[in-house]
Amino acid sequence: MRTFSGGIHPPQSKNTKDKPIEKADLPKKVVIPLQQHSGCQAEPVVSVGDMVKTGQKIGEAKAFISANIHSSITGKIESIKKGLSPILRDGWCITIEGDGTDEWVTSQKNDLDKLSPEEIRQKIKDAGIVGLGGAGFPTHVKLCPPCNTKVDTVIINGAECESYLTCDNRLMIERTNEIIEGLEIIKKAVGAKNGYIAIEDNKPKAIEKVKSAVKGSDKVFVLKTKYPQGAEKQLIKVILSREVPSCKLPLDVGVVVDNVGTAVAVRNAVLENKPLVERVITVCGSGISTERNLLVRIGTSFKDIIDQCGGFKKDVWKVIMGGPMMGLSQFSLDIPVIKGTSGILAMTLDERPDLRERNCIRCGRCVAVCPMHLMPNMLGLYSARFMMNEGFKYNPEDCIECGSCAYVCPAKIPLVQLIRFVKGKKLEHLRCKSELLNRK
Ligand code: SF4
Ligand code: SF4
Known about the structure:
Elements: E1 21-23, E2 29-33, E3 43-44, E4 51-52, E5 57-60, E6 69-70, E7 75-84, E8 90-98, H1 117-126, H2 139-142, E9 153-158, H3 167-174, H4 176-190, E10 194-200, H5 204-213, E11 219-223, H6 232-240, E12 255-259, H7 260-272, E13 278-284, E14 292-297, H8 302-308, E15 316-321, E16 328-329, E17 343-348, H9 365-369, H10 376-384, H11 388-392, H12 404-408, H13 415-439
Parallel strand pairs: 1-14, 9-10, 9-12, 10-11, 13-17
Antiparallel strand pairs: 2-8, 3-5, 4-7, 5-6, 7-8, 13-14, 15-16, 15-17
Helix pairs in contact: 1-4, 3-5, 4-7, 10-13
The protein binds iron/sulfur cluster (SF4) (2 copies).
């Protein structure tokens, strides 16, 4: 079984793996952030009081790395102001009061054979598609390799290595053909010959369905269940034995990696002109009365969704957007679902770990599990003492913030937060250095 060196085996807790995707109720009101992606915020193209249909563009990408934003319901623009965001403390949001009709903007079907790679990328850009695995990187940018780069392989990432989350597993079981169509479209957009779908071995039903649906020379790779098996650099190393160099992207080694949800969204955008206004999320954790996989409109509040799952059943300690390893803790249930929300996880008070920090005992466990072969102990030590120049020598820019080091640390040192700090400083330093070199 293929895998990478390092990594951890947290409890799987995939309680919703057999729960089919259900449609969530149409929300009466949505709050749609204009910044749901990497890069620059979209600019609003509607005004307060305007009537909008479902799928109508309300925010436009004006920069190269940005994404369009669309209305996820039919109704009236109530406000355009700063509001809560799950990835920023606050950001510009458009609030829409629904009229209950859910009238979609008209669209026509397209024939893939008649579309050029440029037209495919334009349709993906128009539809506001971003990576649905959590990173939110605009997909049309990912599919624009520089002129001197040849992409030969597209990997569809169905690893879903985070505990609890099962939305990708359900998509592979229920929307298999859409994923395969998405893969073919992405291959055509970048001119790649090879198409692979990577799935961890804890999803036997998904493996069976995808294996029976793949076409031509495309292949399914079954990978060992281990966290973070779904990280881009680990997937590429495991499947193609190619190493993405420090500070470089998969494109630099001729590969595009997209999540299974992104493949479905790409297929809908290109073949049906359907913008990204809804996504599948897993609502899970021992704090949730009924755990479910739901197809949810972007902008629906966490509270609305948790209520549709019967509310909280115990005292909840933490609500996380995403999985327990890389997800973001939220401070309010008024937070809206965005394109990168893969799950809502509610953990209870009796699951609260002992977080009292102690001194490093130099056990080396963090070094043994780091999938990027870093020395988290040294990075944490120098970051805590604000010794940036020493920390820079340990390559913090290569940290993928997977949290494996913190998970195994017996001293409960908040290694990810400490490493994120020194990583930010190093990236800033590298940016300044390259600007200076460019000026010379
Ligand atoms: S140092 Fe970074 S990449 Fe390595 S285990 Fe820790 S969080 Fe993951
Ligand atoms: S796991 Fe924790 S205690 Fe052990 S070496 Fe790493 S930082 Fe130190």
